[in-house]
């Protein structure tokens, strides 16, 4: 069957792109070809652009991080200003950095290698009639690509809201990372979903995954059906931005007629060329195709219901945290975090405890193993956070390292966090993350495990993408929680898959490590200067 063959292709891709301890890396060029470095900014030359306002922190709809996590927030109206705030906090440039003659932009959403394969599109009726727009972070503007038929937009529009579509240009990542790049693209999509969901919360809005639309239709709706060649942009997901703040997936059954009419307008603008020359990575084309979404919306359990809310008074501005989020390039090896901050961080990763932070509409399949280095009041060692209690028997049976799971001292009763090994895990954390010091020198590091082949077999090959989105989303929450506790985080895509599996005694592809992280005290490089995000706009 086609479906089984596609699952087999995806599993082969994953196996083939594992990094193997101590120095076997997935295929890449092996050096950086600076002459062909892709432009991180897509522009549609010739498309009219609507510049969005910069909504400074403090001048928009504000909420504290703890309110974003736990409280009900009164919805703001959907208009040019609130849309500007959403993009400003989620996907805009947050600062420019300069060292010597190199200058580069950072954004609110992180990206492996700062290469930013993720592009965002907006379907809305807030700027002179319904339209399809491309979000251009370089200018913090919306390029109007197509006018939408009013009736067709009414049929598509989620109840007074709008639709954000995400797409990936894998070439941007493959330029540096070769065959493993598709994984990073999918992590980045997860980070972007998380960034949008967090940015929506101070506005009282929510982000909901739209189910039941296949990739071909997403591509048409986003104006990408003609995107071809090495620089092609492939559709990932449609998200409903719900101004009522409702949660859960949005199942749609759009007719061909509605989609056809919505896409009937002429597309404006021509996509800029990103590189002067390219290296083809057939393996990436293959996994993109094999893991495509066919819109069948295969059955999956919903996230567990709310256990208990935990609104806990004053905390920093969520918008401030979203705009100042940065990856630590180096960790100081001394900063510890309090047990309370650690448990609070873990809490935010559990959908049943903090549902407002969790837009993905399926029961969690990603479970972090934590390398505890410096958490006050906890012994160093390994712990596991079971993000869905229903997954516990499965995890226990597949992780052979520990016979005994013990509740961590002081952990809140409702936090499913268990110690699985004791001892200093710094050396092993460094070794398993491609020998990166940041994994040893933080307060804790994380290896995210996902229930893997059984999910793909039961639900289809597009879940390969979804599992990576989930890992990326968990990572986005780690970034924000780190900022909230005055430390920093860094995503770690470079890890030795086999080494992590071996350490934990994982013997089959029932369970796979998909992403790593570190959280701790960052060391800032004084040679790097920081400049404002949009000074050039005047
Ligand atoms: C999927 C992913 C994988 C990453 N892998 C690594 C890594 O292995 N090592 C590292 O130092 N940084 C890693 N990073 C951090 C990026 O380099 C960083 O996000 C990027 O340079 C942009 O900087 P910013 O996060 O401060 O905006 C990763 C980030 C993401 C999103």
Question: Secondary structure elements and their pairing?
Answer:
Elements: H1 2-16, E1 44-45, E2 49-51, H2 65-70, H3 80-90, E3 93-99, E4 102-107, E5 118-124, E6 131-136, E7 141-147, H4 150-156, E8 162-168, H5 170-177, H6 181-200, E9 206-211, H7 215-221, E10 234-242, E11 250-251, H8 256-262, E12 270-271, H9 282-290, H10 318-324, H11 339-348, E13 366-372, E14 381-385, H12 392-398, E15 406-407, E16 417-422, H13 426-432, H14 438-441, E17 444-451, H15 453-459, H16 463-484, E18 488-492, H17 497-504, E19 511-520, E20 529-531
Parallel strand pairs: 9-11
Antiparallel strand pairs: 1-12, 2-7, 3-4, 3-20, 5-6, 5-8, 6-7, 8-10, 9-10, 13-14, 13-17, 14-16, 15-16, 17-19, 18-19
Helix pairs in contact: 1-9, 3-6, 4-8, 5-6, 6-16
The site of flavin mononucleotide has 20 residues, from strand 4, helix 6 and strand 18.
How would you sum up this structure in a few lines?
It comes from Sandaracinus amylolyticus. By secondary structure, this protein is of the alpha+beta class. It is built from 17 helices and 20 strands.
Task: Provide the β-strand percentage band.
Answer: 15-25%
Q: What shape does the CA trace take?
A: globular
Mean of residue pLDDT? 96
Oligomer description: single chain
Strand order of the largest sheet: 2-7-6-5-8-10-9-11
Q: Termini, distance in Å?
A: 58 Å
Uncertain parts: none
How many DSSP H or I helices?
Answer: 17
The CATH architecture classification of the largest domain is 3-Layer(aba) Sandwich
Helix content: 25-40%
* Radius of gyration, in angstroms, nearest whole number: 22 Å
Into how many domains do the coordinates divide?
2
Largest sheet: 8 strands, mixed
The total of beta strands comes to 20
CATH class of the largest domain: Alpha Beta
CATH topology of the largest domain: NADH Oxidase
Structural class: alpha+beta
């Amino acid at each position: 069957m086609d479906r089984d063959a596609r699952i087999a292709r995806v599993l082969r891709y994953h196996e083939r792109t594992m990094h193997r301890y101590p120095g076997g890396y997935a295929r890449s060029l092996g050096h950086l070809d600076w002459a062909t470095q892709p432009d991180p900014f897509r522009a549609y030359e010739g498309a009219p652009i609507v510049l969005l306002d910069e909504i400074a922190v403090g001048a928009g709809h504000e909420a504290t991080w703890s309110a974003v996590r736990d409280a009900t927030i009164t919805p703001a109206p959907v208009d040019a200003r609130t849309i500007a705030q959403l993009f400003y906090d989620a996907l805009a440039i947050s600062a420019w950095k300069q060292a010597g003659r190199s200058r580069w932009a950072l954004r609110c959403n992180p990206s492996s290698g700062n290469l930013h394969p993720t592009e965002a599109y907006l379907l809305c009726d807030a700027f002179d009639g319904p339209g399809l727009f491309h979000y251009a972070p370089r200018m913090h503007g919306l390029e109007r690509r197509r006018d939408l038929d009013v009736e067709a937009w009414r049929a598509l529009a989620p109840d007074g809201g709008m639709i954000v579509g995400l797409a990936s240009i894998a070439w941007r990542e493959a330029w540096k990372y070769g065959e493993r790049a598709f994984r990073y693209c999918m992590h980045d999509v997860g980070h972007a979903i998380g960034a949008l969901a967090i940015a929506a919360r101070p506005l009282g809005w929510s982000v909901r995954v739209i189910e039941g639309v296949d990739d071909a239709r997403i591509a048409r709706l986003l104006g990408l059906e003609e995107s071809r060649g090495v620089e092609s942009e492939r559709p990932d997901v449609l998200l409903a931005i719900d101004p009522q703040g409702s949660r859960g997936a949005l199942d749609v059954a759009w007719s061909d007629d509605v989609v056809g009419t919505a896409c009937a307008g002429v597309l404006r603008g021509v996509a800029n060329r990103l590189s002067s020359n390219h290296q083809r990575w057939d393996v990436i084309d293959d996994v993109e195709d094999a893991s495509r979404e066919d819109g069948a919306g295969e059955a999956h359990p919903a996230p567990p219901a709310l256990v208990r809310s935990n609104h806990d008074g004053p905390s920093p501005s969520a918008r401030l945290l979203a705009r100042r989020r940065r990856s630590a390039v180096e960790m100081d090896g001394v900063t510890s975090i309090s047990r309370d901050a650690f448990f609070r961080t873990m809490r935010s990763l559990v959908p049943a405890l903090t549902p407002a932070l969790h837009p993905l509409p399926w029961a969690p399949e990603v479970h972090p193993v934590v390398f505890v280095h410096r958490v006050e009041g906890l012994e160093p060692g390994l712990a596991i956070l079971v993000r869905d209690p229903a997954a516990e028997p499965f995890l226990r049976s597949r992780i052979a390292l520990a016979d005994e799971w013990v509740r961590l001292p002081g952990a809140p009763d409702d936090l499913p966090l268990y110690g699985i090994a004791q001892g200093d895990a710094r050396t092993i954390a460094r070794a398993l993350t491609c020998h990166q010091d940041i994994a040893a020198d933080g307060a804790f590091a994380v290896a995210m495990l996902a229930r893997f082949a059984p999910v793909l077999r039961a639900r289809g090959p597009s879940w390969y993408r979804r599992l990576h989105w989930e890992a990326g989303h968990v990572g986005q929450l780690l970034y924000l929680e780190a900022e909230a506790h005055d430390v920093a985080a860094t995503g770690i895509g470079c890890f030795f898959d086999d080494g992590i599996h071996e350490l934990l005694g994982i013997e089959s592809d029932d369970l796979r490590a998909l992403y790593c992280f570190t959280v701790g005290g960052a060391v800032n490089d004084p040679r790097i200067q920081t400049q404002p995000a949009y000074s050039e706009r005047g």
